[in-house]
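step: validate -> pass
step: tokenize input -> pass
step: predict -> running
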Amino acid sequence: MKAFGWLRRVPLAVVILAIGVMGFAALLMLKPRPAPHPEADPPKPVVEVVRVALEDRALTVETQGTVAPRRNIQLVSQVGGQIVEAAPEFVAGGRFEKGDWLVRVDRRDYQNALARAQSQLREAERVLAEERGRARQAEREWRDLGNEQANALFLRQPQIAAAEAAVEAARAERNQAQLDLERTEIRAPFSGRVRQTQADLGQFISPGSAIAEIYDDAVAQVRLPLMDDQAALLALPLGTAIEPAERPAVTLSGRVLGERHQWQGTVVRTEASLGAQSRMLHAIAEVPEPFNTERHPAPLLMGLFVQADIEGRVLNDIASLPVTAVFERNRIYTVRETEAVEGEGGEVSQEKIVEEKRVRVLKLDGDRIWVKGPLSEGEAVIVDRQGYVSPGVAVRFPGEASSLESPDTQDHTEPETDAEENVEAQPDRSGADS
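step: predict -> pass
step: emit ->
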């Protein structure tokens, strides 16, 4: 008892505090600890995919343009006068051949000018003949004097040179008057058609006046704008003509008289500069004999707006994907499928990991898009829900069970099935009891 006598000297509050601390420590030591459980993996997202099918294919480039003639000029009169006659073809849409006359100007003034020029030429030739005769006479007189050497002035050589020059000038005047007379008939420089007339019968025109706008109808041209990506599909030479054997085929389509028709042509050259406003390259397509209905289903009218399909060069290893497979202009998600061994039993499962790739977009064709890039045959490409996945994430395809559903779900569903079977297997005792 003496050993615990010191307790009497300890304050009661300290004793109570010490007992409380020891009790709290005992509670902490005897508290049951939860058993550790591994955290379940989140379910893998389900993604729709398509398989890549690589092809060697020539893609068609689609563009548009307006039909125009290869030559379109203002027909100008080189002489002045009153129009006294017009050809029946001298109307808008009239067809003419090269060398046909279209308009005749009053030629009487030019006939008079030609007559005066011919008279002046004859007079100049007379003067030249006289000077040559005088020169021969002077030469004989000089020889009669016993001196074979005579100066040029005595032999009238300057006078002969002046007379010869006068003859040449008179002959030029005669030729010019004859040419002006011929120009009173304004003729077509090529075969074609009249787009519009700017003068008519009875009108006075001056030299240099435009009387009509005409165009060559042997070949029709279409100026086709091409973006840089489109031009790359064609591989056209820049700013030069294309060899006939290498010209890409082009199909033009447009509406004439309410019906849609097609015309076949070729791309013959490209322009050497980009458009100042559009910054696009322009290719020139030509269609021969646009008004020949035996060669074409309908006349290809000038000014017609047409759609153009240009045959491209063959591209190797390109793929057609749904348009939803490409996002942010040139990015796609593919799925890398690898085999992995899981569990103690060595079960083999497929791991599907998302990878990002960048492709070159070649052409948009409706709900499909043609691309070229680091793709392999049969590779899976994600076509939806790209915002829910990212590179390195494991995914699963539709119809595949999630790893969280297989073991646990089966353990919980089997007893319920057995209970239902037991209930169905029990005999109906209601009749026996009654």
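step: describe -> Residues 404-434 have pLDDT under 50 and may be disordered.
step: cleanup -> pass
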